[in-house]
Amino acid sequence: MRQTARVDISARVDYAVRAMLILAEAAAEGSGPISIDALATRQDLPRKFLEAIFADLRRADLVVSRRGSQGGYVLGRPSKDISVADVFRAVDGPLAEVRGLRPHETEYQGVAAHLPSLWVAVRASLREVLDDTSLDDLRTGDLPDRVRELLAAPDAWRNR
Q: What is the pLDDT of residues 31-48, one digit of tens each?
């Protein structure tokens, strides 16, 4: 059986983006802070896991916690100024690594000498989509032109 290369989106990233979209929606509606319990309930996310994720988001200044009976979390800056890549990096680190190295740090000999160029291009393509898509873009569905072009490609939705 042939193994295929893939980019894995971790549960941490998936949960973080989903929770951040709830905060973006609350900000757009002028709502106040949202508790971890409410975030977990609204997207059926594991509460304890979400607490650890929000510690990372707080350290990255993407969210701010508010104390008190009406406490919870709010976005650290406007949703149009928070990219999906910001969330990804806050909870999972760099967008692309090869055996724990950044793509531009890899080095190969012989026939594989040009492989770092491909790894850098893969990272650049991830950046093009994730850095250029804000939480606000994702919340409203008004995705950047390049993302829409990629989605419209004939084989975009086909497994290979």
A: 999 999 999 999 999 999
Residue 42 near residue 22 (C-beta atoms within 8 A) = yes
CA distance 151 to 34: 32
Question: What residue type is assigned to position 86 of the chain?
Answer: D
Calpha distance 145→65 (Å, rounded): 34
Q: What is the pTM of this model?
A: 0.88
Distance CA 96, CA 80 (A): 24
Does residue 2 sit within a domain?
no
Q: How far apart are the first and last CA of the chain?
A: 14
Least Cα distance to 18 among 33, 38, 4 occurs for 38
What's the domain range around 46? 11-152
Q: Does the residue 158 lie in any domain?
A: no
Count of domains for the chain = 1
In a domain, 127, yes or no: yes
The amino acid occupying position 105 is: E
* CATH number of the domain where residue 137 is located: 1.10.10.10
Name the residue with tokens 């967008």: 95
